[in-house]
Amino acid sequence: MEIFQTPNIDFVSKRRYAYIISLVMILIGAVSLIVHGGPNYGIDFKGGTSLVLRFQKSVTTPEIRNALASIGMGTSEIKNFGTRNEYLIYIAQQKGTSASEIAQNIEKAISQAFTENPFEVMKVDTVGPKVGRELRKAALLATLLSLLLILIYVGWRFEFIFSFGAVIALFHDVFITLGIFSLLNFEISLKEIAAFLTLVGYSLNDTIVVFDRIRENLKVLRNDDLPTIINRSVNQVLSRTIITGFTTFLVLVVLFVLGGEVIRGFSFAMLVGILVGTYSSVYVASPIVLEWQQRRGGKRELRMAKRKSH
Amino acid sequence: MQRKNTIKTILILLLVFWALYALWPTYKVQSLAPEKRSALENEGKLASLIKKAIHMGLDLQGGMYLTLEVDLPQLIEQLARNRDDRFDSIFQRTREEINVSTEDFLTLLSRNFRQEDIPLSRYWGERGDSDKKIIDYLEKEAKDAMDRSLQKLQNRIDQFGVSEPSIQKVGSQRILIQLPGISNPDRAKELIGKTALLEFTLLKDPTVVSEVIEKIDKALAQERGKGKTESLNQDTTQAERISKASQDKVVSVSQLFGEEEVSKVGATKEDTSLVVDEQIFKENPFIALLRTSRRGESQVSVPIENIKAVDRILSRPDIQKLIPVDAEFLWDAEDFQISDRFYRSLYLLNKRTEMTGRYLTDARVTIGSDVQNAGRPEVNFTLDRQGARIFSRLSGANINKQLAIVLDGRVVSAPRIQTKISDGRGRITGIPEMDEAKMIAIVLRVGALPAPVQIVEERTVGPSLGQDSIYRGKMSAVIGLALTVFFMILYYRMAGAIADVALLLNVLILMAVLAQFHFTLTLPGVAGIVLTIGMAVDANVLVYERIREELRTGKTVRAAIDAGYSRAFLTIFDSNLTTLLTALVLYQFGTGPIRGFAVTVSIGIVVSMFTALVVTRVIFDFMTARRTLTKLSI
């Protein structure tokens, strides 16, 4: 079976539309981020206490809220977690009471309120404010370090301009995914950061395959201009890009549907990332190389023309 | 060529055998029937089997992960001598700064002292020691305290009986503890978090207690009555007033104080109600919050609803001034019940401690036999000779006074000294649960931590969520694998089936590496495996697409395969290496679960390079070696 035998799509000439689409996506994400006042950090980064309780019989959010109100925690965040009887309760850091004490108080209050409906503690996370800050820093550092390493590696294996294009594409992917997360008000915790970095790796993988082909074609097709070479290269690797994207997307859909609440955010980030990453390796990374080359080339021609006139 | 392939084939077969061998224990553990499992356990073989199986992270098998921070500032503060106001203010400032700073506490502290032009030798070390020498000394003390804390925590956990705990030092002041499969997380937290500082302290006389309480009461009443005319009726003494069984009612805070005054008394909207007698409250706002059960004793009882409010009042600086400098208020460790209401005792004690638990040699749980404590658990402790001597003198000199046994700032009991005690034995009574008595005995036996510890991060996963995650992870992996395998055959036919062989081998070897090298499999790690399944075919897709291209240019099957593999190699290498780079960074920065992800993704990438390139190539070579293929099913 073959989807594209010998595709010949003119990607380069449509790149301006792609720029507009990308810019609009990034802008929407940016506006959403500004409106929401930054990314919606999960407990790993903002600190606090969260519990997941599984009740034997069904309960409602107001019932839980009432139970918590008796210990003055009626303003806690309460949401359904997966199935009907599972609830997540989040309380921000409080002065004076240690985070793990809060968890104990909540358990006590709820078991007193629901004597007829026993529950099981599925999960407790408490993160102190200092740890939250450290984790945020570590995540940022990890992201920057990966980008730096990529820049160095790609710069070493390819020309600098390629690595510039690759990194721009990566920022593009992360920004758009971040924007979509903000738009849907999904939380960002450590697992999502891991997903972001992985999608960076994946998107780069795609980009390098295209670059590799461009490099190869630059040697073989000496008489063609860069737009032609880029177009041809992208077309040549197009079926690979789509097939690998498809199988990866497939397993991620499985993970998203079956993997459970704990890694849903992770698989969602990856799903979005695969789509955006595939798009960017075709429409963002290579066109940037082209733009740069054309501008630099333009200057060179200009200088040569001047010399001739003298 | 032929020979080279034979070697490769043998190598691959060996690898497969090794993988199956490495995974055998995992398979066995997973498929054991419950009765066989307990049989093995009795023979003592289960533990070694589990050790060889893939090790599962706490998020899969359930358990508790704690990060403790040892309060080194407190330790350093305790080491200081000749402390004065200036010291306290600089120290306090440093403590606040450390919360927002990334710097070392000692670095910060020495800089703050230098800014004020005070040499560190004024408070630590010998006179005239250089700052550097003192910092070195404090650093050594801090490191020593860390090591002792680690040792003591290890002992406590061992005595508590947790299987395969992991306790390690992280950085200069943190300890990471992992307790798999723990059944009572709250108790374990208590066991670990307790400093276990045992102190014997005398209670203040009842007269002093009521004096202090009256002073506080008056101060609050005046504040409330500002503008109103003083109308305090002094007919009855305050003490009598407290003891008067009152008409308690649950009253809302705002109702009592009026909205504006709520904050003045220190109550916030969090306490929705207090238990007071409104009559008394009007004139004695503090006393109204208290009850006393027995007259002539130094403690007062407080309905638990009022504890927060009392705490806030007592912590106010202006109220603190009313408490004698050599005294402090401490709460009882347990609540007690009279009819349907719960109370907690509040004590006024000497600040000076008569004796600490360092003289303790043993602590055991027994069941009380005297009338008052019959059948209830208690902890008996024994003091060494020096301790016994101190205790004897102390008890002899204070007969008929109340001596509080204070554990970590909470009064566990306050018996009245009846006679001089010279055998160096004592007991702690009034412990509600057996489990708790056991825990107190353990922490007393092991001894106090050199500095208090605080839980700064906790991750607990219940056993059923772990089971759930394992099941979901397995399902996702199996279905993801099935879909990918099916798709590859659909798209590439014969060649797809070959790639599938490589894919299955990839997963097999990946799991075997996890088992053999004792990596920990976490839920994100499982996600990493699923992701690997989707991404690992990439190498084959690259090769196959290339072969198709080469075939289109009219090359023979054999030549096309050769060209496909050799041309795709560099691309595969480059693209995989960058993914590997990000995975390594993740490993470096990530915590437990994320590390598991980085591990599976990294192994998956490396293994996929082998299986997708070497294994499939050997299979292709076998196919083309016997007869010349004119058509390739790709």
Describe the fold and architecture.
The complex is a heterodimer of chains A (310) and B (634). Chain A is an alpha+beta fold and 310 residues long. Chain A has two domains: 12-41 and 132-309, Multidrug efflux transporter AcrB transmembrane domain (Multidrug efflux transporter AcrB transmembrane fold, Up-down Bundle), CATH 1.20.1640; 48-127, Alpha-Beta Plaits. Chain A is built from nine helices and four strands; from the N terminus they run H-H-E-H-E-E-H-E-H-H-H-H-H. Chain A has helices at 15-35, 43-46, 61-69, 99-113, 129-157, 160-183, 190-220, 226-258, 264-309, and strands at 48-55, 77-80, 86-91, 119-127. A four-stranded antiparallel sheet of chain A has the order 2-3-1-4. In chain A, helix 7 packs antiparallel against helix 8. The longest helix of chain A has 46 residues, at 264-309. Chain A is elongated, with a radius of gyration of 25 Å. Chain B has 634 residues and is an alpha+beta fold. Chain B folds into four domains: 2-22 and 462-626, Multidrug efflux transporter AcrB transmembrane domain (Multidrug efflux transporter AcrB transmembrane fold, Up-down Bundle); 63-193, Alpha-Beta Plaits (2-Layer Sandwich); 197-204 and 346-446, Gyrase A, domain 2 (2-Layer Sandwich); 205-323, no CATH class. Chain B has 21 helices and 18 strands. Chain B has helices at residues 2-31, 34-43, 46-52, 58-61, 72-79, 85-98, 105-115, 131-160, 185-193, 206-224, 238-243, 253-257, 278-283, 307-315, 317-320, 385-397, 434-446, 463-516, 523-552, 557-589, 592-626; strands at 55-56, 63-70, 166-170, 174-180, 198-202, 249-252, 273-276, 300-303, 327-338, 341-350, 355-356, 360-367, 377-383, 403-407, 410-413, 425-428, 453-461, 520-521. In chain B, strands 3-4-2-17 form a four-stranded antiparallel sheet. In chain B, helix 1 packs antiparallel against helix 18 and helix 18 crosses helix 19 (523-552). The longest helix of chain B has 54 residues, at 463-516. The chains are: A alpha+beta (310), B alpha+beta (634). At the A-B interface, helix 4, strand 4, helix 5, helix 7 and helix 8 of A face helix 9, strand 17, helix 18, helix 19 and helix 20 of B.
